[in-house]
Structure formats: C-alpha cells, structure tokens
Amino acid sequence: MCIICLDIEKNRITSTDAQWALIEMANELDEEHYEEVLQKIEVLQAKDDFKRLLKIDQTVEMCTSCHCDPCDCNWGTDE
C-alpha cells in the first residue's frame, strides 16, 4: 500500500491533495495500483463534495411575486 492509500484510509488527506500526490507518484506506481488509487480518490472526492454541501446552511426564501432572492419588487419576503 502506498502513502496516498494510507493517508486516504486515515482521513489525513483531501481529494485535491491526493490528486496532486498521485501526479507526483505516477511514475513509481504500477498501472493496476494507479487505477486503484484513482478509484479511492473518486470516492474521497464524493465524500468531500457531500461534506461541502452539508456545510452550506442557507435557506433561500424566494419572493412569491418576482421569484428572486433578494426580492427585486419589494413585495416578497424581504419587505
């Protein structure tokens, strides 16, 4: 197991950093392990994206008249 895999398993690296590390180590890995690391990075990227979505805590209340946020017509929720 390479250092990228170890860091991914221990949650010590982000997907972006793992991609950069893979680029740097690409010549040192065989093709099979390279593909395996790519798959692990894809899973990590999905987890990172999900965490990022959970951090977005904005409730958007659209105006019922102009359907904008913030309200452009001053009749909606931002009166």
Structure report:
The chain has one domain (1-79). The longest helix is centred in the middle third of the chain and has 25 residues, at 31-55. It has helices spanning 3-9, 15-25, 31-55. The protein is rod-shaped. It is an all-alpha fold and 79 residues long. It has 3 helices and no strands. The model has no long low-confidence stretch (mean pLDDT 83). α2 packs antiparallel against α3. The N and C termini lie far apart (60 Å).
The gist of it:
The chain is mainly alpha-helical and 79 residues long. The chain contains three helices and no strands.
Strand content: under 5%
Low-confidence stretches: none
Helix content: 40-55%
Q: Oligomeric status of the shown chains?
A: single chain
Mean pLDDT reading: 83
Report the count of strand segments.
Answer: 0
Taken together, the total number of domains comes to 1
Write the layout of secondary structure elements.
Layout lengths: L2 H7 L5 H11 L5 H25 L24
Helix pairs in contact: 2-3
Key terms:
79 residues; 3 helices; 54% helix; mainly alpha
